[in-house]
Design a protein that fits this description.
Blueprint (H helix, E strand, L loop, with lengths): L1 H16 L1 H31 L3 H8 L14 H13 L11 H24 L1 H20 L3 H4 L8 H21 L7 H12 L4 H25 L9 H25 L5 E8 L4 H8 L5 E6 L6 E10 L3 H11 L4 E7 L13
Length: 351
């Protein structure tokens, strides 16, 4: 542990003296996480959400299968699935054999106007790294071999397991990107923009947008069954509705994972009981937040002490507790989760 702390201190000192190296290290780390985030999403999409015909045929042992049962993905990929279903409403159209390629292309195209929103309304660096993520997703979705999927596991007929694993991979992908101040594109950009304006969590906005996508997908699929004789054989209205319901489970799991990883807009209240009168000054100098001090008296000791109230972001909790213990080892601290804060509360803007 001492070796680790020594290395950490030396690294911090080095970065202070070499700001350009520090910046390039941050960018390199973000690039790596964007690539990892994109791979996780693309693999989860191909394995759990919308398996290709090749995988479905291997899993079912039916070489004559003409379509696979799919969940409806969130964000740009879900919109791409919905566009394909809309096109397939017309007689003589069946895109099942080319769905993976079409989704890869549409995924990028759909994100183009969202890049403009991110560029002008959020952050240029945010939009550039989001673009990197989207490009990686489009590429990985196209190049990942079916053998990497069907040789690993087979839960094709277990829709609940697919919904859970799909939600975990999608949520982990988005969460990793959000942790470093970027996004995985699509609805995440809109959700991030709204959450920054309202200073609230991202998950609920993603769920609302994705539910609209599911509704359109189901409607287009049912219409396609009745209007297009070449619509996916073996898929009926019952299976479409069933997969849509399992998709809601997928969205719920994904939203929970995103909110678990994305702590930027989550706030907590610290209630600190201390006899050290310098502690409030130390806190407001260490954080971009003020605090409220109330004089009180200990019931057992009868001595005068201070009650310090302070609201912080959840990501700042560890630093705050360490600082408090360093100033006053006998301080008593309680931490409360907050649903919302009204008034001026500083959150570091996205770079």
């Amino acid at each position: 542990m001492k070796w680790f702390r020594k290395t950490e201190d030396e690294t911090s000192t080095f970065f202070i003296d070499h700001p350009r190296v520090k910046q390039w290290s941050i960018w390199t780390g973000k690039f790596f996480l964007e690539a990892l985030s994109a791979f996780i999403f693309a693999y989860g999409f191909r394995a759990f959400i919308a398996p290709s015909l090749g995988c479905a045929r291997v899993w079912t042992g039916n070489e004559n299968l003409t379509a696979s049962n799919v969940l409806i993905s969130g964000g740009a990929s879900g919109i791409a699935q919905t566009i394909i279903r809309f096109i397939e409403m017309f007689p003589g159209v069946n895109l099942a054999a080319y769905e993976t390629t079409i989704i890869s292309i549409l995924y990028f195209v759909i994100n183009v106007p969202l890049f403009l929103l991110a560029w002008f309304k959020i952050s240029k660096q945010f939009s550039l790294f989001t673009l990197i993520n989207v490009i990686f997703v489009s590429v990985f979705n196209q190049v990942i071999p079916d053998s990497w999927i069907y040789n690993v596991l087979n839960i094709y007929t277990d829709h609940l397991a697919r919904a859970i694993f799909g939600g975990i991979t999608t949520g982990l992908s988005s969460g990793l990107a959000l942790m470093v101040g970027t996004s995985s594109g699509g609805v995440d950009i809109i959700s991030m923009y709204i959450s920054e304006k309202k200073s609230s969590s991202v998950g609920p906005y993603s769920i609302i947008a994705n539910c609209i996508t599911v509704t359109c997908f189901v409607l287009f699929s049912i219409v396609g069954m009745n209007s297009n004789p070449d619509f996916h054989a073996g898929i009926d209205a019952d299976s479409i509705v069933t997969m849509a319901l399992y998709t809601l489970v997928y969205f719920f799991v994904s939203g929970k994972v995103i909110d678990l990883l994305n702590t930027k807009n989550k706030k907590q209240e610290l209630q600190i009981f201390t006899t050290n009168e310098s502690l409030p000054i130390v806190l407001i100098r260490a954080f971009p937040h003020s605090c409220t001090v109330v004089e009180s008296k200990g019931a057992y000791t009868g001595r005068r002490n201070l009650m310090v109230y302070m609201v912080i972001s959840r990501s700042e909790k560890k630093k705050a507790i360490a600082l408090i213990k360093n100033v006053d080892k006998l301080a008593f601290v309680t931490v409360l989760d907050l649903n919302q804060v009204y008034g001026r509360f500083y959150i570091k803007p996205i770079e």
